[in-house]
Predict the structure of HTH cro/C1-type domain-containing protein.
Amino acid sequence: MLSKIERGERHAKKEHIAVLSSILRTSYDDLLSLWLADKVYEVVKNEELALIAIEIADRELRTMINKK
């Protein structure tokens, strides 16, 4: 599975992140952040207004976090 993910033949699932972070001896949070970034990228990569949309999402997330 790992080699297929590395070659881009398969996408990791969120459930795999903990296992992969252990195998790779890397931070779970770092790997999860990269996984989430890849998901966002896949959704917006062909959109002309992608960066503007990401900036809006960033502001909304920051507002949500500040309310907690």
The chain is about 70% helix and 0% strand. The chain has a mean pLDDT of 93.
